Amino acid sequence: MSELMQTIYVVDDDEAMRDSMTWLLEGEGYRVACFDSAEAFLKAWRNDMCGCLVLDVRMPEMSGLELQEKLDSLGSQLPVIFVTGHGDVPMAVGALQRGACDFIEKPFHNEDLLSRIVRALALDNELAARRQRDGAISSRLEQLTQREREVMDLVVAGKLNKQIADELNISMKTVEAHRARVMEKMNVRTLAELVKSVMTVN
């Protein structure tokens, strides 16, 4: 995923805070999109958004924590950095336990925020690469016939060719032919690579 496509989404009900963050982040060459409420961001949210979310904990109506929970339920993988007031630290720690990427206390130094954003964008790239890899493995699995899938599952479970032949009531030669096709379709060279691929998406 290209860093150029990444956007920093700032969700904060304080207009002065949104303006200062936009000025800071655009000055560093980042693409920024601001929202004055959690609800406004939810309306704009798409599953293919990439970048990170800089989210104020305390907002009227829907809080930052409630937005995080809602995004989790939607399957969002956008890294979240919470911006918290001094009294909100225990709340922010709880948010980290629920999957937030980081939090920063107000008032903060610009360098602190920027270093957290660099980490969040690197995590976003890593997650995007993982999704791409998992998608490729899933589409390879879909190319297997039912019998190839059965053979592969038994191979991955550590069964020997003879045990697989007995279990599926087919010849050893047929097991070997299916194994070879599984390796070819899954684009792996060794049994260890095959096991790793299957475990990645299971």
Automatic annotation (TrEMBL):
<protein>
    <submittedName>
        <fullName>Response regulator transcription factor</fullName>
    </submittedName>
</protein>
<dbReference type="Pfam" id="PF00196">
    <property type="entry name" value="GerE"/>
</dbReference>
<feature type="domain" description="Response regulatory">
    <location>
        <begin position="7"/>
        <end position="121"/>
    </location>
</feature>
<keyword id="KW-0805">Transcription regulation</keyword>
<dbReference type="Pfam" id="PF00072">
    <property type="entry name" value="Response_reg"/>
</dbReference>
<keyword id="KW-0597">Phosphoprotein</keyword>
<keyword id="KW-0238">DNA-binding</keyword>
<keyword id="KW-0804">Transcription</keyword>
<feature type="modified residue" description="4-aspartylphosphate">
    <location>
        <position position="56"/>
    </location>
</feature>
<feature type="domain" description="HTH luxR-type">
    <location>
        <begin position="137"/>
        <end position="202"/>
    </location>
</feature>
<dbReference type="InterPro" id="IPR016032">
    <property type="entry name" value="Sig_transdc_resp-reg_C-effctor"/>
</dbReference>
<dbReference type="InterPro" id="IPR000792">
    <property type="entry name" value="Tscrpt_reg_LuxR_C"/>
</dbReference>
<dbReference type="InterPro" id="IPR001789">
    <property type="entry name" value="Sig_transdc_resp-reg_receiver"/>
</dbReference>
<dbReference type="InterPro" id="IPR011006">
    <property type="entry name" value="CheY-like_superfamily"/>
</dbReference>
<dbReference type="InterPro" id="IPR036388">
    <property type="entry name" value="WH-like_DNA-bd_sf"/>
</dbReference>
